[in-house]
Specification:
This protein has 108 residues and is mainly alpha-helical. The protein has a domain of 34 residues. The chain has 4 helices and no strands.
């Protein structure tokens, strides 16, 4: 007799016993937690595997630096710093030549 009574039991608002009331705020909070959990999993680096993006960037850098293909990673970074300094010097020189030829002075 008690078992039948439990099956027929309802909450005050008419919902069957054993069910929960959910609203939009509860669902939104649950969705946010779920998205956060999955985004954390995606950002975790996989052990023993280099990121494809890093490898691609290093390959691109090696193609931009003169003789960059034939040197290691540490040498590549040193060559990159030297090459940037060299390019900055070239730009300064070209600006001075242009200013001398045109006769205009800029604040640079």
């Amino acid at each position: 007799m008690r078992f039948v009574h439990l099956l027929e039991a309802t909450h005050d608002d008419g919902r069957p016993a054993g069910t929960r009331r959910t609203n939009k705020l509860t669902k939104l909070a649950h969705d946010k937690k779920r998205k956060r959990r999955f985004s954390r999993r995606r950002n975790v680096a996989r052990p023993g595997r280099e990121s494809a993006g890093i490898v691609r960037r290093i390959r691109t850098l090696k193609s931009l630096i003169p003789n960059g293909v034939s040197i290691g990673l540490e040498g590549l970074f040193a060559e990159t710093a030297d090459y940037i300094a060299s390019l900055q010097t070239r730009v300064r020189t070209m600006r001075m030549v242009v200013e001398a030829m045109t006769g205009c002075n800029s604040d640079r």
